[in-house]
Amino acid sequence: MQTVQPKPSQTTTIAQPLPNPVKLSKVKQLINWLARPYEYTEECANAYGDTFTVQLLGFLPLVFISNPKAIKELFAADTKHFDVGRGQDLLRPLLGDNSVIVLDGERHRRERKLLMPPFHGAKVKTYGETICEIAKESSRTWQPGEKILAGEKMPGITLEVMLHTVFGLRKGTRYRQLKTSLIEWLSLTASPLSASVLFIKWLKVDLGPLSPWGKIVRKRREVYALLQEEIVERRAKVAEQGESAGDDVLSLMLMARDEAGQPMTDEELKDELVTMLFAGLETTAIALSWALYWVHKQPDVKAKLTAELDALDVDADPLAIAALPYLTAVTSETLRIYPVAPITSPRIATESVTINGYTFPPETYIAPAIYAVHHREELYPNPKEFKPERFLERRFAASEFIPFGGGSRRCLGYALAKLELNLVLATLLREHSFHLATDKDVTPRRRGVVIATSNGVPLIVDS
After folding, report:
1. What is this structure's pTM?
2. Pair 327, 305: CB distance under 8 Å
3. Which CATH superfamily is domain 8-461 in?
4. pLDDT, mean of each 10-residue run, the chain (463 residues)
């Protein structure tokens, strides 16, 4: 990919123009970003190089970067030079003001530290058996000859995993209510058209229960009321039983204390729980759908993965399964070729900063473009080809493979997401045999702020 060199004027004055502005109207840029984000990103990268500026209706200009050297510098930069939380204002109406995603400075550090214990490697490993059991149970009713849609089945599995590992819920009235409400809430921004309400500020107006934003507001209120009920009950249980109250994420969050000995408030807990659900439910489900597509699209990949899984003992330990090299390479390549998110958290410069030779003035929004990084020819030869062997032949740097972002903003739940992705895929392939119901290629399609599959990946159950 061509590397664009900065012009002399770009390093001399704060009023300098941002690099390589895309020569399309704001409206056309927004339409492209909503309807065909990856094709649009690729077209811009081909035309302007690895640093270019887009301007989406309602936003300040946003600089996309895909040079690993620039990304490394951005991830390693002192956080005091950037405001990252404000770059996520798009999500604030959904996730709330206390979400770790929209916080900055000391509040972000405090919240991230409080949330760390449930997602520590040792704790995450205890969820392995639960994930395998949920995948088995969820697929038990699938019959030979039945046609299933991965895009419909995978969210059910990942939602069960979230309800169990995050909330400790597997049954009961609140479990059923929360499950239904969450599915309905997510469906409100499922298409490119309905997702536009998230990107266009003047559409975020509650005009009643039938208006697009009104539906989102009311469903959010419903979910938060259910979460409040659960928090009240669980807080009492933790107060009575202490550490024996449970090892789910909510129980651990209720026991967490900051340096001043203070617990998280109910509002903080609700915002963080919703953040986890949004960050971990659909994203993992989409990645699983893509993985099932690629495995069955390419017979050689399926044969190698099946051979690796067949060599396991019937009662193999979940952690041994999750660590399988080819399985891990398949899921990593899945996250590379069509990442679930098109960009990582935008960083907003709070002062003039220089990244890879470009000097950016204060208030510049800068975002690593995940898809563009993952499709750089010099890093990933023939990037459109699904080739898991890439991840067996080479270890990619933290600025070259970035499906979970990086730096101080790397996804807190990335270890749980990778464990879940590996174990659910392995369990489904050990329990069943499938083939694709159609030869038609599957392409990326926007679903809210993430990018899903175009047809849900229809599969036929063989056994």
Report:
1. 0.89
2. yes
3. Cytochrome P450 (1.10.630.10)
4. 39 62 93 93 96 82 96 92 82 86 87 82 83 96 97 94 87 88 83 73 84 90 93 91 82 90 93 86 94 97 98 92 97 98 91 92 94 97 98 97 92 90 98 96 90 96 96
